[in-house]
Amino acid sequence: MKFFSGFCLANEQELFTPYLNQSDFTVAGFSYGAIKAFEYALTCKERIDTLQLFSPAFFGDKNAKFKKLQTLSFSKNSDLYTQNFMRNCVYPSTFDIQSFFQKGNLEELNELLNYTWEKERLRTLQERGMNIEVYVGECDTIIDALHVKDFFVPYASVYYLKRVGHILK
Q: Known InterPro entries for this protein (predicted)?
Protein backbone atom coordinates (compact mmCIF):
# COMPACT_ATOMS: atom_id res chain seq x y z
CA MET A 1 0.00 0.00 0.00
CA LYS A 2 1.25 3.46 -0.93
CA PHE A 3 0.02 6.39 1.19
CA PHE A 4 0.21 10.15 0.56
CA SER A 5 0.02 12.53 3.53
CA GLY A 6 -2.16 15.56 4.04
CA PHE A 7 -1.17 19.21 4.27
CA CYS A 8 0.94 19.87 7.39
CA LEU A 9 1.08 16.16 8.17
CA ALA A 10 3.43 13.21 7.71
CA ASN A 11 3.02 9.47 8.25
CA GLU A 12 -0.53 9.78 9.52
CA GLN A 13 -1.83 6.67 7.74
CA GLU A 14 -2.39 4.91 11.08
CA LEU A 15 -5.29 7.31 11.66
CA PHE A 16 -7.11 5.53 8.86
CA THR A 17 -6.31 1.93 9.84
CA PRO A 18 -10.01 0.99 10.21
CA TYR A 19 -10.56 1.87 6.54
CA LEU A 20 -7.21 1.26 4.85
CA ASN A 21 -6.89 -1.57 2.40
CA GLN A 22 -3.39 -2.86 3.17
CA SER A 23 -2.99 -4.56 -0.23
CA ASP A 24 0.18 -4.01 -2.25
CA PHE A 25 -2.15 -2.81 -5.02
CA THR A 26 -3.75 0.04 -3.07
CA VAL A 27 -2.91 3.73 -3.26
CA ALA A 28 -4.36 6.02 -0.60
CA GLY A 29 -4.17 9.63 0.43
CA PHE A 30 -5.60 11.98 3.02
CA SER A 31 -6.82 15.49 2.18
CA TYR A 32 -3.97 17.10 0.18
CA GLY A 33 -2.49 13.61 -0.06
CA ALA A 34 -5.69 12.48 -1.83
CA ILE A 35 -4.75 14.83 -4.68
CA LYS A 36 -1.25 13.34 -4.78
CA ALA A 37 -2.64 9.78 -4.66
CA PHE A 38 -5.06 10.57 -7.49
CA GLU A 39 -2.33 12.07 -9.68
CA TYR A 40 -0.06 9.11 -8.91
CA ALA A 41 -2.81 6.65 -9.88
CA LEU A 42 -3.32 8.46 -13.18
CA THR A 43 0.33 8.21 -14.18
CA CYS A 44 1.45 4.97 -12.52
CA LYS A 45 2.25 2.11 -14.88
CA GLU A 46 2.11 -0.50 -12.12
CA ARG A 47 -1.02 -2.37 -11.05
CA ILE A 48 -3.41 -0.44 -8.81
CA ASP A 49 -6.66 -2.12 -7.82
CA THR A 50 -7.95 0.39 -5.27
CA LEU A 51 -7.59 4.14 -4.84
CA GLN A 52 -8.68 5.35 -1.41
CA LEU A 53 -9.30 9.07 -0.93
CA PHE A 54 -9.79 10.15 2.68
CA SER A 55 -11.40 13.59 3.05
CA PRO A 56 -10.05 14.69 -0.33
CA ALA A 57 -9.01 18.36 -0.51
CA PHE A 58 -11.86 19.73 -2.59
CA PHE A 59 -12.27 23.47 -2.95
CA GLY A 60 -13.90 23.71 -6.37
CA ASP A 61 -17.00 24.99 -4.59
CA LYS A 62 -15.10 27.94 -3.06
CA ASN A 63 -14.67 31.32 -4.73
CA ALA A 64 -11.42 33.17 -5.45
CA LYS A 65 -11.94 35.45 -2.43
CA PHE A 66 -12.00 32.47 -0.05
CA LYS A 67 -8.83 31.04 -1.58
CA LYS A 68 -7.02 34.36 -1.48
CA LEU A 69 -7.97 34.86 2.18
CA GLN A 70 -6.53 31.41 3.00
CA THR A 71 -3.21 32.16 1.31
CA LEU A 72 -3.00 35.67 2.82
CA SER A 73 -3.69 34.28 6.30
CA PHE A 74 -0.99 31.66 5.84
CA SER A 75 1.48 34.24 4.50
CA LYS A 76 0.81 36.65 7.35
CA ASN A 77 1.20 34.12 10.18
CA SER A 78 1.81 30.52 9.09
CA ASP A 79 2.13 29.29 12.69
CA LEU A 80 -1.29 30.63 13.67
CA TYR A 81 -2.80 29.40 10.42
CA THR A 82 -1.48 25.85 10.90
CA GLN A 83 -2.57 25.76 14.57
CA ASN A 84 -6.10 26.65 13.50
CA PHE A 85 -5.92 24.19 10.61
CA MET A 86 -4.86 21.37 12.94
CA ARG A 87 -7.77 22.15 15.31
CA ASN A 88 -10.17 22.05 12.36
CA CYS A 89 -8.68 18.74 11.19
CA VAL A 90 -9.58 16.95 14.42
CA TYR A 91 -12.94 18.63 15.09
CA PRO A 92 -15.33 17.41 16.52
CA SER A 93 -12.94 15.03 18.32
CA THR A 94 -10.12 16.04 20.61
CA PHE A 95 -7.74 13.49 19.10
CA ASP A 96 -4.10 14.60 19.34
CA ILE A 97 -2.40 14.59 15.92
CA GLN A 98 0.64 16.68 16.91
CA SER A 99 2.93 13.66 16.49
CA PHE A 100 2.06 13.74 12.76
CA PHE A 101 2.58 17.49 12.33
CA GLN A 102 4.98 18.66 9.66
CA LYS A 103 4.84 22.30 8.66
CA GLY A 104 3.34 22.86 5.22
CA ASN A 105 4.27 25.62 2.81
CA LEU A 106 2.47 28.21 0.71
CA GLU A 107 3.09 26.31 -2.52
CA GLU A 108 1.29 23.22 -1.15
CA LEU A 109 -1.57 25.33 0.19
CA ASN A 110 -2.00 27.03 -3.20
CA GLU A 111 -1.94 23.67 -4.97
CA LEU A 112 -4.62 22.13 -2.76
CA LEU A 113 -6.86 25.21 -2.83
CA ASN A 114 -6.71 25.50 -6.63
CA TYR A 115 -6.72 21.84 -7.62
CA THR A 116 -9.50 20.86 -10.04
CA TRP A 117 -10.95 17.37 -9.72
CA GLU A 118 -11.83 16.47 -13.32
CA LYS A 119 -14.68 14.06 -14.00
CA GLU A 120 -13.04 12.77 -17.17
CA ARG A 121 -9.91 11.78 -15.27
CA LEU A 122 -12.02 9.95 -12.67
CA ARG A 123 -13.75 8.11 -15.53
CA THR A 124 -10.32 7.17 -16.90
CA LEU A 125 -9.48 5.37 -13.66
CA GLN A 126 -12.89 3.68 -13.66
CA GLU A 127 -12.31 2.45 -17.21
CA ARG A 128 -8.97 0.98 -16.12
CA GLY A 129 -10.94 -1.12 -13.63
CA MET A 130 -9.70 0.77 -10.59
CA ASN A 131 -11.96 0.70 -7.53
CA ILE A 132 -12.20 4.24 -6.16
CA GLU A 133 -13.28 4.75 -2.55
CA VAL A 134 -13.97 8.15 -1.02
CA TYR A 135 -14.40 8.69 2.73
CA VAL A 136 -15.85 11.91 4.13
CA GLY A 137 -16.99 12.95 7.59
CA GLU A 138 -20.33 14.59 8.24
CA CYS A 139 -18.79 17.17 10.62
CA ASP A 140 -15.82 18.14 8.44
CA THR A 141 -14.97 21.84 8.87
CA ILE A 142 -12.23 21.84 6.19
CA ILE A 143 -14.24 20.69 3.18
CA ASP A 144 -17.96 20.60 2.38
CA ALA A 145 -18.58 16.88 2.88
CA LEU A 146 -21.99 16.86 1.15
CA HIS A 147 -20.57 18.63 -1.91
CA VAL A 148 -17.66 16.15 -2.03
CA LYS A 149 -20.04 13.21 -1.63
CA ASP A 150 -22.27 14.42 -4.45
CA PHE A 151 -19.32 15.10 -6.76
CA PHE A 152 -17.69 11.66 -6.33
CA VAL A 153 -20.80 9.42 -6.22
CA PRO A 154 -20.85 8.74 -10.00
CA TYR A 155 -17.22 7.56 -9.94
CA ALA A 156 -16.60 6.02 -6.54
CA SER A 157 -17.98 4.16 -3.59
CA VAL A 158 -18.53 7.05 -1.20
CA TYR A 159 -18.62 6.48 2.54
CA TYR A 160 -20.29 9.36 4.37
CA LEU A 161 -19.41 8.86 8.02
CA LYS A 162 -21.70 10.33 10.67
CA ARG A 163 -20.45 12.39 13.65
CA VAL A 164 -16.81 12.58 12.49
CA GLY A 165 -14.68 15.32 10.96
CA HIS A 166 -11.76 15.66 8.57
CA ILE A 167 -9.59 12.94 10.16
CA LEU A 168 -12.65 10.64 10.28
CA LYS A 169 -12.51 10.29 14.08
A: AB_hydrolase_fold
Kind and range of the H or E element at 4?
A: strand 2-4
158 close to 132: Cβ distance less than 8 angstroms: no
Query: Please, which residues have CB within 8 angstroms of residue 59's CB and are 6 or more apart in sequence?
Result: 66, 67, 112, 113, 114, 115, 143
Torsion of CA 28, 54, 133, 129, to 10 degrees: -30
Packed helices 119-127 and 32-43: angle between N→C axes, nearest 10 degrees? 50
Share of the chain above pLDDT 90, in %: 99
Q: Quick one: average pLDDT of 33-55?
A: 97
Of 91, 81, 86, nearest to 137 (Cα)? Answer: 91
Q: What is the pLDDT of residue 100?
A: 97
CA distances from 1 to 21, 46, 135 (A): 7, 12, 17
| Interior/surface letters 6-36, b for 16+ CB within 10 angstroms, e for the rest | bbbbeebbebbeeebeeeeebbbbbbbbbbb
Please give the pLDDT value at position 132.
98
Burial class (CB in 10 A: 0-12, 13-18, 19+), 100: buried
pTM value? 0.97
Q: What's the CATH code, domain 2-161?
A: 3.40.50.1820
